[in-house]
Amino acid sequence: MEYLSFEKPIEELENQLTKAHELADETGVDMAKTITDIRQKIDDAKKEIYSNLISSIKQNSFNKNSLCVVWNLTTHID
Description:
By secondary structure, the chain is mainly α. It is 77% helix and 0% strand. It has 3 helices and no strands. The mean pLDDT is 86.
């Protein structure tokens, strides 16, 4: 997946999540708590980053169509 510059914190967390899964698979160590914690951090980071993006767009008086595009992009993120 390609990340934009403001999404770097999400990219870093996604990499941590991948490494946690790999470690669990390779060693058999129970990483469930770590994986859950990282997923929560990813969700929190997405909410904060995209909320800030939407606020920034609103403050900079983009037209309604631009805001709708960003809203649609950010509300359908898993």
